[in-house]
Specification:
alpha+beta, single chain, about 1500 residues, four-stranded mixed sheet, about 15% strand, 14-stranded mixed sheet
């Protein structure tokens, strides 16, 4: 714009021009919209546009100036003054147009042009009215009017603000907000904008807060005071301090021609990029954020220098447009920096001020920027890395940053790199960068400069040493070496020093860590170092430096002391070369004399020479050494090369002997060198040694003795392989054969006795207890489980099993039984794998699986309860042998044939039925289908198939049942015994049954209560059950209970003695349910609990069912309940006895049988009117006594010879004369005699001390007899007693016939007290009958000598003769004591075959002690003998065959069948002890003894 000239356009001409413009303007909505849309978002951006427009004006002044003044007084205007030449028409036309500008020039090819013609229009963001005055023009724009932004309004410029010769713009600001925005923007206006303006040199800003600020720019295209190139100096001066401040900028320009086409830069083929770098007076970059410019400021993007480029901006001119044009302009900026600025920086250096070492500060990144500008930063760093832009240490040359190392101070020494030469220097960054290094190092590393690490230092040092050799290291000072040593100590590794010889030696050499045997100094404690050792000592001066000494220690270079010498000695044996014997001896002696505390490392790698005939060095641990002055197995076999036994060369021992330390050397050699004094049997790998193999094959006995004598030493190294090998080695046995060691036993006497079939090892001193340790090798050393199992196997291995005796087998079984511990698994496995069960009858060994313990007899299995009854614990408890099972019975039935008898079939079917009761698996009888196994009626008899419900169900035979036709009857067998205890108990409990009755009348309940209150309970030996179907009588059976309720006034309950309580209670409950008429099924279930619960809990039980005590006022049964309730369990105590029951108070039971023989009332005793305990309880006592007497008086009754005596003669040679003796030889008292053969009432019989059969009298303090005496007298006959199992006793000797007595089902384990149990009462009753029988028979056959009362020396005589009772001590007598004065009893015994050849006895007849043993069963039924009775029998045994006349003879008179329909019988066991010793009687020891034939 031209400056206004007073002689120019007339004001009238200017006004006409403006009117013409208005006429040409019309309403153009598109223009309005376009103008509105394209205004800048930032209201104050117009300030920059006005400055830029002013820079495009024409100036005639030397100092083109623009001034901006903000109203101070009224706060409503902004005035802009510019000293340009003034507007012309074109300028005004441009102001009134949109999208056009006077700056457009189609011929223009470079430079800035306006866009869209809207720069001036941005002024309307803050003002609605704008006044303009320039030369002849004066007008305004009023945005509020139509087209007010482009249609000028002629109006004079506010006169108070008018300045002649200036182009002025006056803005009437909209309001306070806009005013504050303008004020703030003026304060922030950067004066650096002048750097990139082409014409304006001065910018003046006048605001209320800042006052007046003036900025002047001085451009120097060739700054001679600097580097002769373009610079700019920006001077700032403010009215507040009025001190000018200069800011220098290095200006770098470059023309970019590689542009992209863009419609907004039509015809533009080149553009200029300008960079301005601020520096201070010290030539140091001024670091703060600088704006980027597109002639006007755009924004701050984190650069420390100013960037000017012809960038295309978005409409608001506040950010760069994304276009290819801009990318090209940005590339121009990049090239300007790299290609123009950096080379210029590197040229600016001198002695004092230099930019070469500081310019990287311009690259310091102040903050993150957007994607567009971040590209520029990446491009610059990437390009600089490959350009020679940084100075290296070689002649100040410039090098590429990516080839340079920055050397930190830790790798410098005295201001120089620790490692550098002319080849390395070009790769070291110049130290001139150091003053700013902390600031510029991040930028340098981004360019590619690497900070030297220890590894880099190590690499350079290694390379330099390789080039220069040792001379480089020798030329360095001790301080230099100290620092290098410290670096390696703290940051390096030992392996790195394998290639750098940093260790100086005293001999002038420099060595690496690969050099062996390097030491700091020598200190060997005045010992002689062996010859031939290579020792290298470190330089003394080097050792004096602390760093270097620590460095050497770190390299594990130690002092050359004894430990080091020892280490050298050991090292030369690692890669071994042959040494002389003398050097080897020196090495050995030095190691020996070095204390263990000095050298603790292993010496196992040491090698020595052997004695002849061997040669060649070998490891010390392969050698053996003898104790001084001793000879052992080593010396014996050392000269045999096959033995692998190497002894030390004698010269070694001579050298030690010269020291006088042979003993110490032996200990040292064994502990440190692992030399052994005994043959090694396993090596370090736990494998067998050649020495072991040699001894095993060539010297087995020496090997055994070695193991025995040095057990503790070898046991520590005993492993499975060695134990197995020793166990498998062949050894000589006593029978001359060689066997494996683990198949033998020690030849001890007790082992030979118990295991005669075992092989015994032939060893010396077999009683030496050390041989017992060979149990670890499988040798049998004691009577153990393994011993008896092996003995059994040995028995099975006999070629002929018929030679096997059952006795030897039973010995093994008994021993095995006592030897098995809590875990019998081993024995179970052995019996499973081998046939170890011997069947005597078949002389055959069978498997345990083919056997059972008990149960019915079956042909398919073997019953061990009969074969080995005394070994029940072994087979049942330990080997878990079961009884016969259902499967066994089915298998047995499956094997029947047409020849199988009907009786056998019946037996098997009954057995099958019983097992089916317990279990009935589905289809268990499937394999019996089609088999002819059901027997039918035999032509000449009947067949009983009863209680076969399970079998019938299993075989689907229910439709063939005959139970409805069976007329079963019950009958009591034997005399009834009143059970007062059970009677009272049942009365108490039965009273509760009344509460369970629901459908009876009160009179019926009263009658029932009366019968229950008076019920009586009786015991009987047996109850017979008879069956009859359609006239066919079945076999008799037994029952537990007979409920006698036929008498309406009395209830008698009879049970068989020895009942199973559970069965008896169950049957009682069923009978009471029927008897009481209990119909409620729920209440029926309470009967059994009432019978079994404790009395004190029954009331609670009934209350839980709502059955409380009835309170019916019409019932007088309350008295009954009251009386019953008083009878609690406490009344059963001894201090509250139950009332006495006598015979007159007990009504005889009413039994539904005509054969009971029991009177309704007991008769008076026929022999005595006095009552007795038995008579009170047994109403039929006297009748039975009369019956027994009558039977004894029968002329046909004679004793039966049950056992033919084998030695009842007085002429043959005695079997055991040493132990069988007459009682006169045991006891000294003598017996007085009278002529009549009768003894005085108070006579004591010599040697007699026996209790009665009933068990009364004193007991010995030990068992049946004194075991000590028997064991000492009969060592070959008696075996060790075993522990009884459950209620079964154990025979004291092994019965040769294979059968001993099992407890009779009618006998308890001891003789019961008759006053304590019903069974005891019954036994007493039977015993009384037996004694009555014998007394009567002897009275008849020994008349007149026999006295029925005097010779009856038992308290049982008091039952029959209460007026003449036995007053003696019953334990001292047998039941009958008789001095056979006339020999009649001796004659009777001889006549009936009980004794023979006793004619000499008539000269001095003996005293007979007759003990009566009675049973209701047959003669074979066992009987009891007390301990005293057995002792008496033993003391009064006869020395048969000795010819001596005995003084006392003990006889057991056995009475049997006392309750049978047939008459009783009896036999005599003369001298039962002798019969026991001759295997004719067996004694089963329990609390007393059970005797069986």
């Amino acid at each position: 714009m031209a400056t206004i000239i007073s002689t120019g356009l007339l004001k009238q001409e200017a006004d006409d021009h403006l009117r013409d413009i208005r006429r040409r303007k019309g309403v153009d909505s598109n223009i309005q919209h376009r103008l509105s849309d394209q205004l800048y978002k930032k209201p104050t951006h117009f300030l920059l546009e006005l400055i830029q427009n002013a820079d495009d004006n024409t100036f005639e002044s030397d100092i083109p100036t623009i001034s901006l003044t903000l109203d101070i007084a009224t706060n409503n205007y902004l005035r802009i003054d510019c000293n340009e030449v003034g507007f012309d028409k074109a300028n005004v036309e441009a102001l009134c147009r949109i999208g056009d500008s006077t700056k457009k020039d189609k011929e223009r090819t470079k430079g800035y042009i306006g866009e869209k013609g809207i720069g001036f229009k941005s002024i309307f963001k803050v003002a609605d009215i704008v006044h303009i005055s320039s030369k002849g023009y004066a007008f305004k724009f009023d945005r509020r009017s139509t087209l007010g932004m482009i249609a000028p309004i002629i109006e004079a410029f506010p006169p108070e603000h008018l300045k002649i010769g200036q182009t002025q713009t006056f803005l009437e600001i909209k309001g306070n907000a806009e005013y504050e925005d303008i004020h703030t923007e003026l304060e922030k206006l950067q004066p650096q904008i002048l750097i990139f303006l082409r014409k304006i040199r001065r910018l003046v800003i006048n605001t209320p807060r800042l006052g007046k600020c003036q900025f002047d720019i001085r451009r120097l295209n060739q700054d001679g005071d600097f580097d002769g190139k373009e610079t700019a100096i920006l001077t700032s001066r403010c009215s507040r301090d009025n001190k000018p401040k200069d800011h220098r900028y290095i200006i770098v320009r470059r023309i970019e021609t590689a542009l992209e086409k863009d419609d907004r830069r039509e015809n533009i083929t080149e553009t200029e990029t300008v960079l301005a770098f601020p520096i201070d007076e010290k030539m140091r970059p001024v670091l703060h954020d600088q704006h980027t410019y597109a002639y006007l400021p755009i924004d701050d993007y984190g650069f420390n220098y100013l960037i000017q480029g012809d960038f295309l901006l978005i409409a608001n001119r506040e950010s760069v447009d994304s276009s290819r044009w801009n990318d090209r302009v940005l590339a121009g900026v990049f090239r300007t920096f790299v290609c123009r600025a950096v080379p210029r920086f590197n040229e600016i250096h001198g002695s004092s001020l230099s930019l070469r070492y500081k310019w990287p500060l311009f690259l310091k990144d102040n903050r993150e920027t957007d994607k567009f500008w971040s590209k520029l930063k990446r491009w610059i760093f990437s390009r600089l890395a490959k350009e020679d832009v940084l100075e290296c240490r070689h002649n100040m040359d410039l090098s590429r940053p990516d080839s340079l190392f920055y050397i930190p101070s830790e790798f410098r020494f005295e201001g120089e790199p620790l490692v550098e030469d002319e080849k390395i220097a070009p790769h070291h960054l110049s130290f001139s960068y150091d003053p700013e290094i902390n600031q510029i190092l991040p930028q340098l590393t981004r360019m590619g400069v690497k900070v030297m690490s220890f590894l880099d230092f190590y690499t350079e040092l290694r390379a330099l040493t390789a080039r220069r050799g040792i001379s480089f290291l020798k030329g360095k000072s001790n301080q230099w070496h100290s620092k290098v040593a410290g670096l390696f100590y703290y940051k390096g590794s030992v392996t790195q020093l394998q290639h750098i010889p940093l260790i100086p030696l005293q001999d002038g050499r420099w060595v690496t860590t690969s050099q062996s045997n390097v030491f700091l100094e020598e200190d060997t404690s005045r010992t002689t170092v062996p010859g031939g050792l290579d020792i290298n000592l470190v330089d003394v001066e080097a050792c004096q430096d602390a760093n270097r000494k620590k460095f050497f220690r770190w390299l594990c270079i130690e002092k050359c002391d004894q430990a080091a010498v020892c280490q050298l000695i050991m090292q030369r044996y690692n890669a071994f070369r042959e040494l002389s014997l003398s050097h080897s001896i020196q090495d050995l002696i030095y190691l020996f004399q070095t204390p263990r505390a000095v050298y603790k490392r292993s010496l196992e790698g040491f090698q020595l020479l052997p004695a002849t005939p061997l040669n060649g060095f070998r490891y010390a641990k392969k050698f053996y050494i003898e104790h001084p002055g001793k000879s052992s197995i080593l010396t014996k076999y050392a000269r045999d090369p096959a033995s692998n036994i190497s002894l030390l060369h004698p010269d070694y021992l001579n050298a030690v002997r010269n020291l006088g330390k042979e003993s110490e050397f032996l200990d040292w050699a064994c502990s440190r060198l692992k030399i052994s004094t005994h043959p090694r049997l396993i090596d370090d790998s736990q494998n067998l040694t050649p020495e072991f193999e040699f001894l095993k094959n060539n010297a087995a006995m020496d090997l055994l003795l070695l193991l025995r004598d040095h057990w503790d030493m070898y046991y520590d190294y005993l492993n499975l392989e060695l134990a197995t090998a020793v166990s498998e080695m062949l050894v000589d046995c006593t029978d001359g054969l060689a066997r494996r060691l683990d198949e033998t036993a020690l030849p001890l006497e007790k082992l030979k006795l118990e295991g005669p079939d075992l092989p015994f090892i032939a060893i010396p001193e077999h009683n030496d207890v050390r041989w017992l340790r060979f149990l670890h090798y499988g040798v049998l050393t004691n009577l153990s489980e393994a011993f008896y199992l092996r003995q059994l196997k040995a028995l099975t291995s006999r070629p002929d099993s018929s030679t096997t005796s059952k006795f030897s087998v039973q010995v093994a079984y008994t021993g095995l039984e006592s030897s098995i511990g809590a875990f019998p698994r081993v024995a179970q496995v052995e019996f499973t794998r081998h046939p170890l069960v011997f069947i005597e009858g078949r002389k055959q060994w069978v498997f345990l699986r083919d056997c059972v313990w008990g149960g019915p007899h079956l042909a398919s299995v073997y019953h061990l309860s009969t074969e080995f009854p005394q070994n029940k614990k072994l087979f049942r408890d330990q080997l878990k042998l079961g009884n016969v099972t259902l499967a066994h019975v089915i298998q047995e039935l499956d094997c029947v044939t047409s020849s199988t008898s009907f009786s056998r079939l019946e037996e098997l079917l009954l057995q099958l039925n019983e097992y089916l009761r317990k279990e009935s698996p589905k289809n268990c009888l499937s394999k019996l289908r089609g088999k002819d196994i059901i027997p039918v009626k035999m032509p000449n008899g009947t067949l009983s198939l009863r209680k076969l419900d399970p079998l019938i169900q299993a075989m689907n035979l229910s439709k063939m049942l005959l139970s409805n036709a069976d007329a079963a009857t019950l009958e009591a067998n034997g005399d009834l015994i009143y059970d007062d205890e059970r009677s009272l108990e049942l009365r108490r409990r039965a009273s509760y049954f009344q509460r369970l009755i629901k459908d009876k009348t009160i009179p019926e309940i009263k009658d029932l209560a009366a019968r229950l209150e008076t019920l009586q309970v009786w015991g009987v030996s047996a109850i017979k059950l008879s069956h009859k179907v359609n006239g066919i009588i079945g076999a008799d059976d037994t029952s537990s209970l007979l409920f006698g309720d036929t008498d309406p006034s009395q209830l008698d309950i009879i049970y068989a003695l020895n009942p199973e309580e559970a069965i008896l209670n169950f049957e009682l409950s069923e009978h009471f349910v029927e008897f009481c008429g209990i119909t409620d099924k729920k209440l029926e279930k309470l009967v059994l609990p009432i019978l079994t619960y404790p009395l004190k809990h029954i009331e609670t039980l009934l209350e839980s069912y709502g059955l409380d005590l009835p309170n019916d006022p019409h019932s007088n049964s309350a008295e009954t309940f009251d009386s019953v309730s008083e009878l609690s369990e406490e009344n059963d105590a001894e201090n509250n006895p139950i009332r006495e029951i006598n015979s007159s108070a007990i009504a005889s039971p009413v039994i539904p049988s005509s054969c009971s023989g029991v009177p309704h009332t007991p008769p008076d005793p026929p022999l005595s009117s006095q009552t007795s305990f038995l008579r009170d309880r047994i109403p039929a006592l006297d009748e039975r006594i009369l019956s027994v007497k009558a039977a004894a008086a029968h002329q046909n009754i004679t004793p039966t010879l049950v056992i033919t005596p084998s030695q009842r003669t007085n002429t043959a040679t005695p079997l055991m004369p040493a132990i069988l003796s007459n009682s006169n030889e045991i006891s000294t008292p003598t017996t007085s005699r009278t002529e009549s053969g009768l003894l005085p009432p108070e006579t004591e019989f010599a040697g007699s001390s026996t209790p009665s059969a009933s068990g009364h009298g004193p007991q010995n303090s030990y068992g049946a007899f004194e075991f000590r005496d028997m064991n000492s007298a009969l060592p070959s006959v008696l075996a060790t007693a075993t522990t009884p199992s459950q209620n079964y006793g154990t025979s004291l000797i092994r019965h040769p016939h294979g059968s001993t007595f099992s407890q009779s089902p009618h006998n308890p384990r001891t003789e019961p007290d008759p006053r304590h149990t019903m069974e005891g009462l019954y036994k007493h009753y039977i015993g009384l009958q037996g004694e009555v029988f014998i007394n009567e028979w002897l009275s008849k056959n020994l008349k007149p000598e026999w006295d029925a009362t005097r010779h009856w020396t038992s308290r049982n005589r008091n039952q029959l003769y209460p007026n003449n009772p036995f007053m003696g001590k019953e334990g001292d007598f047998a039941d009958f004591t008789y001095q056979d004065t006339n020999g009649k009893l001796t004659e009777i015994l001889t006549t009936h075959g009980f004794i023979c050849d006793v004619e000499t006895w008539l000269e001095s007849p003996p005293i007979y002690h007759l003990e009566v043993k009675s049973t209701s069963g047959p003669c074979k039924e066992p009987f009891h003998m007390s301990n005293n009775q057995v002792t008496m029998a033993r003391k009064q045994t006869v020395s048969w065959g000795s010819g001596r006349i005995p003084t006392n003879i003990y006889i057991v008179l056995r009475v049997y069948n006392l309750e049978k329909e047939t008459d009783p019988g009896f036999t005599a066991y003369v001298d039962p002890w002798a019969m026991y010793m001759n295997w004719e009687l067996s004694f089963m020891a329990r609390d007393d003894f059970v005797v069986a034939t």
